[in-house]
Amino acid sequence: MKMTYRLSRAFQRSSAWLRSRNPARAVLSLVGLVAAASFLAVAPAAAQTYPNKPIRLIVPFAPGSGSDILARILSEPLSQALGQPIVVENKPGNNTTVGTELVATSPPDGYTLGLLTNSGLAASPGGLTSGVRYDPVKDLSYIALVASVNYVWLVNNDVDAKTAPELIKLIKANPGKYNYASGNTGGIAYGGYLKNSHKLDVTHVPYKSTPPALADLLSGHVQIMVADVPASLSMIRAGKVRPVGALAAQRYVLLPDVPTFAELGLATPPNMDGWWALVAPAGTPDAILDRLNKEVVKILETESIKAKLLQSSLVPTPSTRKQATDYQKEQLQVWTTMVKDLNLKVE
Prior knowledge:
Layout lengths: L1 H18 L3 H27 L5 E5 L6 H17 L3 E5 L6 H8 L7 E6 H11 L11 E10 L1 E6 L7 H10 L5 E4 L2 H13 L5 E4 L3 H10 L4 E5 H9 L3 E6 L27 E8 L4 H15 L2 H9 L3 E2 L4 H22 L5
Parallel strand pairs: 1-2, 1-3, 6-7, 6-8
Antiparallel strand pairs: 3-10, 4-10, 4-11, 5-8, 5-9
Helix pairs in contact: 1-2, 3-10, 5-12
């Protein structure tokens, strides 16, 4: 009300003053004042009425993927909280950059969101993938971190090593004998880091996805692999493959018995774990972003949702908008450095 009153008084004073001096300029100035008043009246109303139609949630992976499962776990309670349907749209391609670009170039009105990953938000723009046509810092607004996945160093059960130091010693004693598989972005990066930092003479065998890589690890076609925990957890628990070390600073929630590299006397690799963030196009109003953050954090802190995520081997990571924004920037720097130092590339 105070802002409207001030505009009204300004309108009256300006119109009287300008009419007495320059009628033509008066018309232009009055048009500007009317536009400003209209914007101030409409902007809060738009934020208050959001959302008033269905929301698209872009997932840069195919149906049935871990990202797709996470999107459907999140979308149902978020739809209930917002009072509008959330339509999950799968847009895979070019190491997730197709779906990420779609979000970055959509109208900033809160009706196109993305459940995006480190691949499209840090690894690919850090140089891992060619053809990236967006800036993940300038073209996107970060609503909240949602979940993460960890990676673990694995061996075939016939490999005579039970810990990471034992595996390193075994490889160095048998140069050129062993090969290692990768099935995704994290596996490529962690595998390359371990090979370079410990000067291991091993052959990299890249796979297009994790399941066939794990199948070949199980059969012995490859002997070593860095795999994400969700994909490998059932095989680990069944004793079909052996974990030799956790690649993070702390033990994993889902693999509490697997020691970290630090506990084994090895340097902890840079954090190249997988993660998801809920993201909107840059320029989306703060009121909408704040509303979405509040609802998402509330959902992720709900015990039933926590249980669903952990059952899918996903660790919930609720955050503030600032924490999500800062984490993306940190991860972009990590991946930019790793891609350059390890000469990593995915085409």
